[in-house]
Every structure is written in structure tokens, then in C-alpha cells.
Amino acid sequence: MTLELNGASLSIEDIKDFLHQQDQVAISSDALERVKKSRAIVEDIIKNKETIYGITTGFGLFSDVLIDPGQYNQLQVNLIRSHACGTGDPFSHDVALVMMILRLNTMLKGHSGVTTDLVDQLIYFINHRIIPIIPQQGSLGASGDLAPLSHLALALIGEGKVYYQQEERESSEVLEELGRKPLQLSAKEGLALINGTQAMTAQGVINWIEAESLAYQSEWIASLTHQALNGITDAYRPEVHDVRNFPEQSAVADRMLYWLEDSNLTTHQGEIRVQDAYTLRCIPQVHGASFETLNFVKKQLEREMNAANDNPLIFHEDDETLVISGGNFHGQPVAYALDFLKVAVSELGNIAERRLERLVNPQLNGDLPAFLSPEPGLQSGAMIMQYAAASLVSENKTLAHPASVDSIPSSANQEDHVSMGTIASRHGYQIADNTRRVLAIELIIALQAVELKGIDKLSPRSREKYETLRNITPSITEDRQFHKDITKVARYLQQTAYTEVDCK
């Protein structure tokens, strides 16, 4: 299958399918025409020797410095080399690939003034899976993700490192091997490659895909815990949630009833207790709020995925040409959204840790053994798994601090307010990874608890999950190195993020 890009309609679902199905990209004919028209305007600017930021002038504080016409192209190469100051571990291959797709998509809107050669080079890299090695740290999230995108651009011109066919190599070597020439940057193109929010947005898209999967997975995992604790289903009745006016809360309640249908372990109010603790009773309210946040974040990300966010922007309407320096590269709308996503995913982990605590605590778990130990005293059972979960959710609380409330001036105070959105995106991925491990711990403990209660009493849908997971993590018959189980179950949850969405 081929993902056709047009600069206007790219969705997160498109990206999810692309990554899972190993698709190719192509561009629409209309988009290509827009690219050609915007490039023609740049050529006219050069011909007429107009003073336009980043085309005939320097950058940042040097915006008033005119460049000799014979050095316009060298200006762009110098920009990429000097701005490639990223540090730290590289972004994942998926993030780097999505970064290229998003950068290509924004150029297709026809406001960037790039050549078709640049468009073709991006398509070639994407379709041949030549993945630029892009350090994660170094972006302020305004003036675009300058450092990360410069490393992307280095690969295109044959000066950076790439990951190709299971190896990290020099871009120049790979291009020579494939008979492909490095891109020769023309006026405006270096700036068009790096003035944008594609690093934070690409990482944000991956975060969102994994967050959505975690949110759905947290429901069927919670249903196992609910049954192990003989939870009350009355609190999930639709009339309770319909009067609250939050549709996602109602949807979570409906799905919880779906997972618990025909269980012989659930109860009604008054049978064992009048009402459950909040971690069971308020699952729709808490998880539902996370889903509401996911909806908002998705809207913001998809807007940005289809936005023109470089500088300057080129417009040609009604025979009038405008080249305007603005600030669409400022990542604030995305930064806020990614900070909200961090909080929403953190809360999925927080409530999960409190649920699993109820399973192992003999004062809270009914008639289950302390820490679900097969031999209390001699065997510690799940005691320290709860410690690990508590540590992860505590770390998440630190990572969830909003990056977007920080700013530090740069470029001699010319760029005096920045978004820090790329930091939000990186911390968001760590939070998702930590939350997945918390859910894995809840799942391991819940499987053991329902086994002690009687798996024949489980709801049929929960029983299917139980059987699947028992092929990954066996029953706890004696103490063992549970970190291995946590890793295997977390890997299972992550692998199914792109292939299964347990929305029912």
C-alpha cells in the first residue's frame, strides 16, 4: 500500500498504518504543482535581489546581514552544519521516519519554496528506509526543532549518519552504494528543512499511539483486578455516567461492563460491601478523563501534522506574491498538548499502582494471601513488584512536570521565548514506557489473584486474556526473578500497540 501525501489530510491513523504495514509514500499531483509554484517565487526573489529573511540574508540575529548572491546556496549548507548540535541518545527509528514524513508533508502545502529535488530526496529516504540518526537533545522547541532537524538534513546532503539495513553507517556511503547523489541545497532549502516542529510532533505522534493502546489495555487489565477483588458492577451502569455529561467516561463504563460480562466473580452493591474503593469504582471517571485528553491531543497533533510551520512563508494569491516572516515554528500549541498527554498517561499508571496494591495488601485484598505468596514468610511473592510499580509512578510524577512553562532566551535575545515542546515529547515517551511496566505488573499480579479465586469463574473475555498471558508469564508457584516477567509482559503490551486496540 502507498500513503499519498498532500499537505492537508495526514492523520495519526495513517502514520500508525504506515509503520505497521511498512508502506511507501507518494505525493499528489496537486501538491507537486504547489511545490513548483512556490519554488518559482524563490527564484524570482533571487533574480530580483530582494531582501528576504533566510534567502538573501543571514539567520536569527544576523537577519539584517545581506548575503552575496554567489553564496546563497552555501548559506544553506552552513546553516545545516552549524545547527547540527544535537546531543544524547538518538530518537527511535520510527520517530526519525515519521519526522521525515511530517517534514515532507508540510513542504507540500506550497509555502516553503523548496525544489522538487528536495521533495524527491525525502521520498527516496523514506521509501528506502534510510533513517537519519538524530540526537534527542538540543531543541528549544521554537525557531523550530533546529538541532534535530539539522541532523535529518545532514543525512539528505550526505554528511550525516544513517541507519540502513540493520547497520549504522555514513549517509555518503549508503547513497554511493545505492547510486544516489547527495542533495545539493539551494536557496531557502536549509531553512525550510529545519524551521518546524517535526521532532516534537513526530515523537508526540508515537507517544499518542502508545498512549491510546495503554488506555485501552488498562481497561481489560483493570477488569481482571476488579474480578479478583469481587468488585461491584453497579457503579458502571450507564445511567450513572450519562448524567455526568462526559462521553468518554460513559464509554469506559460501557467497556468495563463488556469485559466483566457473565463473570461469576463480580458482585452487586450490598452483597459483600456497599461500595468499592475509588480505584475500582472510579475507573470510568479517571480513565475517561485520560481518553478526553487523548482526544484533545490528537486534534492538536493532526493540525500540526498538516500545518505550514517554517519561516518565511510564501503566498501567491490573486496575482499577488507575499513572503512573510512569522512564527509558525513556535511549538507552544504542541508543547501544551504533549504536557497534557504526560499527565493523562501518568494517571493511568497512578491508579493502576493503587489497584495492584489492593491485590497484594492482606488488609485490602479480602481472603487472598499476603503478597499472593505461595508460602507466606518463606516466599515473598509479589511484594517487591509493588515497590517497583511505586517507584515508576513516582518517577512519572517528576517527568509530568510541564516542560511548556519553562523558557530561556536564545540568539542574543532575538528568540526570547521558546516552548520546550521537544522536552515534553521526550519525557512523554518515558512516561508511557514507565506506565506500560506498571500495567504489566498489575497484570502479572491480577493473573495470579484471579487464579487463586478460580479462573473458571472469570468472564469469558477475561478468560481469553488470561489464557493468552499465561503463555507469557506462568503462575507464581515459587519466588523467581520477576523482572523477567515484567519485561516480557511489557514487551507484549508494546508489540500489540500497532496490531490490536482492545476497544471492546
UniProtKB/TrEMBL annotation:
<dbReference type="InterPro" id="IPR024083">
    <property type="entry name" value="Fumarase/histidase_N"/>
</dbReference>
<dbReference type="Pfam" id="PF00221">
    <property type="entry name" value="Lyase_aromatic"/>
</dbReference>
<dbReference type="GO" id="GO:0005737">
    <property type="term" value="C:cytoplasm"/>
</dbReference>
<keyword id="KW-0963">Cytoplasm</keyword>
<dbReference type="InterPro" id="IPR022313">
    <property type="entry name" value="Phe/His_NH3-lyase_AS"/>
</dbReference>
<comment type="similarity">
    <text>Belongs to the PAL/histidase family.</text>
</comment>
<dbReference type="InterPro" id="IPR001106">
    <property type="entry name" value="Aromatic_Lyase"/>
</dbReference>
<dbReference type="InterPro" id="IPR005921">
    <property type="entry name" value="HutH"/>
</dbReference>
<comment type="pathway">
    <text>Amino-acid degradation; L-histidine degradation into L-glutamate; N-formimidoyl-L-glutamate from L-histidine: step 1/3.</text>
</comment>
<feature type="modified residue" description="2,3-didehydroalanine (Ser)">
    <location>
        <position position="143"/>
    </location>
</feature>
<dbReference type="GO" id="GO:0019557">
    <property type="term" value="P:L-histidine catabolic process to glutamate and formate"/>
</dbReference>
<protein>
    <recommendedName>
        <fullName>Histidine ammonia-lyase</fullName>
        <ecNumber>4.3.1.3</ecNumber>
    </recommendedName>
</protein>
<feature type="cross-link" description="5-imidazolinone (Ala-Gly)">
    <location>
        <begin position="142"/>
        <end position="144"/>
    </location>
</feature>
<keyword id="KW-0369">Histidine metabolism</keyword>
<dbReference type="InterPro" id="IPR008948">
    <property type="entry name" value="L-Aspartase-like"/>
</dbReference>
<dbReference type="GO" id="GO:0019556">
    <property type="term" value="P:L-histidine catabolic process to glutamate and formamide"/>
</dbReference>
<dbReference type="GO" id="GO:0004397">
    <property type="term" value="F:histidine ammonia-lyase activity"/>
</dbReference>
<keyword id="KW-0456">Lyase</keyword>
